[in-house]
Amino acid sequence: MKTKQLLLSTVAAAFLAAPVAGALAQGKTGIVKIGVNETLSGKFVGVGLPPTTAIRLAVHEVNEKGFKVGDTTYKFEPIILDNRSEGSVMVANATRLIEDDKVKVIFGPTLSLLANQSQEITVPANVINFSAAGSWQGLGYLKDPKKPLLFGTQLPLPDLALSEVDAMKQLGAKKIAYMGSDDDTTRGNMGPFLAEAKKQGLQAELILFPYNTADFSSFVTRAKSMGLEAVFFLHPQVSAPNLMRAMVELKAFPKGFAGRGMLPAAALTQAIGKPVPFPFISVNATPDLSYPATPAQKAFADKLKGTGVDLGATINFAFFSYDFVPMLAAAMTKAGTVTDTAKIAAALKTITYNGAGGKVCIAKDVQTAIYDGAQIIVREGKVSAKAFPSSCK
Amino acid sequence: MTGVARSPLRAAGPYGGVLLLGLLAYLLPQVSSSSFVLSLATTALIYAIAASGLGFLWGQSGQLSLAHAAVFGIGAYTAAICAKQFGLTFAASLPISTGVGLVAGALVALPSLRTSGHYFVILTFAVGEVISVVEMRWESLTGGVNGITTLPGAQTLFGLRLAGRADYYTVVVIFAVVVLLVLCLLMRSRWGILLRSMRENPDLSTSLGINVPINRVIAFALSGAIAGLAGQLYLYHVKSIAPEAFMSNLSIAFLLVVLLGGKNHLLGPAVGAFIYVFLPEYIGLSPVRSQIAFGVILVIMILTAPDGALSLIGRLRERLRARRPEGGA
Amino acid sequence: MEEQLTLFVQYALNGIAMGAVYAMIAAGITLVYGLSRIIHFAVGELVMFGAFIALMVWEATGSFSWALAAAIPALAIIGLITERVVFRFTLKEPLTGFIVSLGLILVFQGTAVEIWSPNPKYSQPPLHGSWDFFDILVRKQSMLNLAIAAVVLAVCYVVLKKTTAGKSVRAVSDDPDASALMGIPVKKVIMATFIVGSALAGIAGCIIMTVGFISPFIGAVYLLRGFAVALIGGLGNIQGAAIAGIGLGIAESLAAGYVGPGWTDAYVFGTVVLVLLWRPTGLAGGAEGARI
């Protein structure tokens, strides 16, 4: 552990050392430790890598100038721990961050089943915990007044459902399939979509498949036999081209494909080597970094690529933490404290931060983040984007 | 470790070993003030308990189970359901989770009456997979993929607070010592000798009038009970469980733990558990490279010391003994 | 009624290609087990390596034949290395070999993450489109995959049954000690099965690359399926593996079509349990279980 910490603090030191000469010539300085408890090895390393990479970037950027709390200029020192995708190690890491390192803020884990365990430790310890875990919304934790320090970093599910059902209406379908891998992510997300679809008069059938499904033939055949006209595909993103290829070859879902956070390249080139013959809509839970809509998003995408870390199709997950680091700094400045988590959390809820995700703020009824959304539409090989700016003031 | 000890001093050996291990474990919080170390040590001891049950089964009766993590999971789920649906305390649900583990262990053993050897190993693997699917799909009981959360609240056991990190660690130490002492007693009992003779020569044992199948099932039930108990301890350690945690990779981890320490030594699984849990934290490479290095170290350890780390001590002792007369001459 | 029949045939057809992949993995498992008695649990990771190597070559050259041609020797070499460096030391104690293979899983997964990143990768197949036979749609790539698997399995079968090399493999499988006395180089034969078994995993990986996404963590799925098929077919029995593999593929496909996939794994492994209880050495009868 010592050596690991050494390694990680070297990384932190490299970020800290660079800007010392700059703006901090006068005044008191201080360090705020923030914990990162992510899946950096083992089965779910792909989930933990993008948020961690983004936090490293964001901390580096915040530290260039530091942030003022009272008359002291602070910098963040990230303590990045790998939980090996294992619950017991996640528990040990969270315990260590809180009790040994005395951090007041922890980012992650992003993976739902670990995030559920994490909040059992962070809530009683009065530590602020950020996570994109869908289960926090699904299980009602983010509406629980007893858990005021939990912050979700994904859009509120009902907001997403609105945009997603809107996409299905654009496809002109009445009978649709909602497809997703049979896991906590899908089960946490499908409720609001199905409710909204029903409200808007769509007939939606649920088709779940095992996460590792390679061949979608029979799922698609089944949808075809049920007379379903279009599909909404939740995840995993990487299976989207497979599914669309099966749609073309088995002549299913004639009215088209919509999905959450799908790469337009899937429809343009990947599925069948040329644009698919039906319309494709990607509804983005996080701003799309393959088609960045604003200069800020473009800059962020370039910076991520500059890190040399291959984030693949999950690159959008980087938004699960990037803007929340400077936002946290702003909240600490506003609250006038780096330790009183209740005050920091209260300040966080009042801030609107202008970040890579557009205007970012915390929703009123459910304690999760709001930022820009978008629909990326591919019709006959032409890509167009429709923005859904955040409702933050 | 096998056979009857020769002198009273050696006879006290294994019991003394267990007590020494218990004392060392008990003193750990005094030596290291790190909550991280304490939390990992709690995990290691829980794994040690579960793996000791597996080690007993494997070392004494020669049966190997890949459903051990599933039975461990059943113990954890039983305790969680007891707490959630029936509001039972830790102490009240302990006999239930242990008992359910016992029954589950015996059920896993039943196929061993028909099939044997490697087929049986794979069969236990298949049983484990079926159990994890049931945990995932029987949502009304298990909470499905999201699992169940159990909080100890203000409960105490032996005057120790279950919610307190150091207190709970002490509770786990006590259970570990008790379980190891019981296993020690059994290994040295007539039944232990009978199991080993069954392992060495089942046909001869049968012709001597020993009911081999029944004794096998009993050994399995015992290891299941220990796994069930460890499962409950795990639940109250991590507080929230989901089916993902008890899939085949945990069974694989238990096997590695047993083999790392040594299946023929009472304390082997305990030593193996500490190696398994702590070693990756001290490799000091990037996370993914640490994982690779850990795998390589495991392979090398198993190849060089197939009887476990503890057998190295025995080998060392023999080498020293062999050298001593030379030095004297 | 006719519609229902068409649908049923369509589902069954959908499942055959994946079934052939399972059969091929199982054939590798069966060969390695039959001779060395080692339960080789890192086979899923070998499939994953085969898939990634095939993907690299396929993207670099644009030729599927080259991808297949590269994956086979690459995996054969990996098989040779694992046998020389690790498994040959565990032949006397097959159970140790099994445990060692568990350690290898960590090594293989980590190495794949280091080389190819943890992110799942997708690739286009060489063949697109489908044929339409009386409203039954046959995907071209699936048929190519089926053809590859059938040829590979047929070659394995013929080599085992008709050639001298195959006969010595069977002899070693039946009785290693007697084979050694008769002058069969037992250790070399075992080494050869590790090479062939790994190469089979490589071909399976190459096919999987054309069907679905691949990632460093797909191994477990194919390991589970491969072992289930090998056991149901009877360890050491290639025809058994072929039949059981196709059967599993079709069963999965029917489950996806009619009942939803949630309990599929329970059915698959429940079947394994029942089959082993009914016929303790597999349906088609395989090698005797060694005592451990």
Secondary structural class of chain B: mainly alpha
Main beta-sheet annotation of chain B: 2 strands, antiparallel
Going by helix content, strand content and strand pairing, the class of chain C is: mainly alpha
**Which residues of chain B sit in consecutive blocks of at least 5 with pLDDT less than 50?**
1-11
Helix content of chain C: over 70%
Mean pLDDT of chain C: 87
Inertia-based shape of chain C: globular
- Enumerate the spans of chain C where pLDDT stays under 50 for 5 or more consecutive residues: 287-292
Note the main sheet of chain C: 2 strands, antiparallel
Q: Into which percentage range does the β-strand content of chain B fall?
A: under 5%
- Strand order across the largest sheet of chain C: 1-2
Helix content of chain B: over 70%
Number of strands of chain B: 4
**Greatest chain-chain contact:** B-C, 38 and 51 residues
Round the Cα radius of gyration of chain B to an integer and report it: 20 Å
Oligomer: heterotrimer
- The end-to-end span of chain B amounts to 31 Å
Distance linking N and C termini of chain C: 53 Å
Structure notes:
The complex is a heterotrimer of chains A (393), B (329) and C (292). Chain A is of the alpha/beta class. Chain A contains 13 helices and 16 strands. Chain A has helices at residues 2-17, 45-65, 87-100, 112-122, 134-138, 157-170, 184-199, 217-225, 240-249, 264-270, 295-306, 324-335, 341-350, and strands at residues 28-38, 67-69, 72-82, 105-107, 128-131, 150-152, 175-181, 203-209, 230-233, 256-260, 280-284, 353-355, 358-362, 369-370, 373-379, 382-388. In chain A, the strands form 3 sheets. Chain A has a 7-stranded mixed sheet with strand order 8-7-9-10-11-15-16, with helices on both faces. Chain A is elongated, with a radius of gyration of 21 Å. Chain B is an all-alpha fold and 329 residues long. Helices cover 74% and strands 2% of the residues of chain B. Chain B is built from 15 helices and 4 strands. Chain B has helices spanning 8-11, 13-31, 35-61, 68-86, 90-109, 117-137, 139-142, 165-187, 190-200, 202-207, 212-238, 248-261, 268-278, 287-304, 309-328, and strands spanning 148-149, 156-157, 160-161, 240-241. In chain B, the strands form 2 sheets. A two-stranded antiparallel ribbon of chain B has the order 1-4. In chain B, strands 2-3 form a two-stranded antiparallel sheet. Mean pLDDT of chain B is 86; it is low at 1-11. Chain C has 292 residues and is mainly α. Helix content of chain C is 74%, strand content 3%. Chain C contains 11 helices and 2 strands. Chain C has helices at residues 2-36, 43-61, 64-85, 94-116, 140-162, 164-174, 176-181, 186-211, 219-233, 238-259, 264-278, and strands spanning 130-133, 136-139. In chain C, strands 1-2 form a two-stranded antiparallel ribbon. In chain C, a hairpin with a 2-residue loop joins strand 1 (130-133) and strand 2 (136-139). Chain C is globular and about 60 Å long.
